[in-house]
Amino acid sequence: MFSPRPFLIRSTAVLSVALFSVACGGSDAGPNAMTEAGAQTPPVTGAVVLKTPVLSFNDTGLNVTDGITSNGKWGVESQGVDWEFSLDQGVTWTRGSGASFEVKGDGAKMIWVRARDDAGNTSEIVRVNCVLDTTPPAAVAISGQSDGVTNTFKLSGIEPGARWEYSLDEQRSWSAGKGSALGALGNHLSRVWLRQVDMAGNNSVAQGFDLQNPSVVSHEASGDPLQPSILAPGLQTYLIHGVVARGDADYVRWDVPKGQQLLSVKLLQFVSEDAIAFYALQPSKAFDAGVDVSRMLVYGHMGPSDLARNVLANVAKSKLGEGPMTLWFQQTGSLPTRYAIEVMLAPAD
Asked: Can you tell me the distance from the alpha carbon of 138 to that of 242, in angstroms, rounded to the nearest whole number?
């Protein structure tokens, strides 16, 4: 795996020439200020001034400022004039063809592009720096263990700057995790997939874990609001999953430790012919609020239209800090509902 270092700019769309010039230290003094061999020459009075090309590329990386990508293809708009590019700071130039060119070979790249006509007139040079990284990272090492009724999957081997992700639908979609482990409590999900994504956006090979394996704890969440099931402490990413129907609510509690805050609670999976379930959160060790909504942090209906919605988006951060939190999830209809809810914690601001 190539180890990148910071560079000056990164492009996520078609950027203007002015932006490239500022970010990369400016362009040449005039349209003919750089020769084929890179030597400086006096500007030619009365020379034709060509418009500077506009460059774009598909930035695949995780950060919009790190200048790292796994895609070496650059788009060029040159106002109907021929263009050329250099990868050695103007020592040699390659005539472009069409509307793009591709840079190959992992590593740091210094890319110069300019317009050029048949008379030898050239535009100012557009200079960009980036790091090309096309090598997938190694698969993460994962160790599973049970902590009470929580199955914990600890991840190691994450590259610096990379992130890890998990999938609940056989790799059709992925969710980003936080911390160094995934904690799962419930009895619905059959498999979870885990992988890492490096700074350039390359994915490792995914690893699947059978949650129905006898070595994994299958736990039906408590139906007693005063004695909820408890998630293992010390993690930042949790999955609560189960099956509910009328008369069979799930109550699950977790504790936000000192220095942490509750970042999000999201519905990730909802499988039911009945599209409406009910949820509520109470900042307490038990759900003893009954139907008194004034004692609930948030509450409401939840269904397929709510997938990936953070129900805490409008809650003040001051209410999401240290302390216990209990979730109530219930289907009021008679048809069973299979669900998965993500709970995410993060360091307090």
From this structure: 32
